[in-house]
Every structure is written in structure tokens, then in C-alpha cells.
From TrEMBL:
This is SRPBCC family protein. InterPro entries: Polyketide_cyclase/dehydratase, START-like_dom_sf. It comes from the Bacteria. It comes from Leifsonia williamsii. Gene3D superfamilies: 3.30.530.20. It holds the Pfam family Polyketide_cyc2.
Length: 149
């Protein structure tokens, strides 16, 4: 297995971050760089999601972990590999830390992970900035446009 992650912290509450994350994964883009998501059922474990990364073809994922306010993960099968994308939220001392992880598993994961993983995770900083801006806008009551990065 090969893995990498990106973390950031915000003054927004975990509830505000979770609401923005749920909106994104339910089909509401948070900014110009947002990947596009289309749910095929409820926002729940087992539901399939069509994900269209910026400038790429759509792929189908499945929600595999969902702990409201704390963890969201979906998994995509990709040519003998499985890609698991996870957001983990931890609230402490009035701030929320968010970690976005990608895990690449499968027979060739150790061989292709070092090249494929950074390509996949390359947009994590921009995606995280959009997520946190949307959460902070929710927390302050700012209009949705304020969340655009």
C-alpha cells in the first residue's frame, strides 16, 4: 500500500467543515477548482458517486466510511488498484484540523504509488483551501461567493 496526505487547520467548527464536505460530495462545487460529484442515492455508506476530477474523465466511487462530523471516505477501483480518499476532521481548542488522505492499494501499489500518488494528491492544497474557505464562510455567515478561491 502507498499513502500520502495533506492537512490544514481552520477556525471554522467541525460542523461547518463537515457541512461543506457533505455539500461537495453531494454535488455542490465549492469553488472553481472543485472536482464534480454526483450521488446516486443517499449520502451514506454503500452509495455510488460519480466523480469527475478537473480535466479528467468521470469515474465511479463508493462511499466506504462515513462518521458524520469526523470521517468521510470513498473508494475507486482503477486498473487493478483501489484508491481510497479519506477526509478526517479533528476539533480541538476551537479549531478544526482536516486531513485529506489517498491510499493506493493493490498488487502494483508500491510500484506505481510513488508516481501516481503525487499526481492525484497534487490538487489537495487547492481543494483543501476551497473546503476551508466554504466552511469559514458558513461560520461567519458570509455569502457563498466569499468561499470561492
Amino acid at each position: 500500500m502507498w499513502t500520502t496526505d495533506f492537512s490544514a487547520t481552520t477556525d471554522a467548527s467541525a460542523a461547518a467543515v463537515w457541512a461543506a464536505l457533505r455539500d461537495l460530495h453531494s454535488g455542490t462545487p465549492l469553488g472553481l477548482a472543485s472536482d464534480r460529484f454526483e450521488l446516486h442515492g443517499p449520502f451514506a455508506v454503500g452509495t455510488r458517486v460519480t466523480v469527475t476530477p478537473q480535466g479528467q474523465d468521470a469515474m465511479t466511487s463508493e462511499i466506504v466510511e462515513l462518521e458524520p462530523g469526523h470521517v468521510y471516505a470513498d473508494r475507486t477501483a482503477f486498473g487493478g488498484l483501489t484508491l481510497t480518499f479519506r477526509h478526517t476532521l479533528v476539533e480541538q481548542e476551537g479549531r478544526t484540523s482536516v486531513t485529506h488522505t489517498v491510499e493506493i492499494a493493490g498488487e502494483e501499489a508500491d510500484a506505481v504509488g510513488p508516481e501516481l500518488g503525487p499526481q492525484i494528491a497534487g490538487d489537495f492544497p487547492v481543494a483543501m483551501a476551497e473546503l476551508l474557505a466554504a466552511a469559514e464562510a458558513r461560520s461567519t455567515g458570509a455569502p457563498a461567493e466569499a468561499a470561492r478561491v
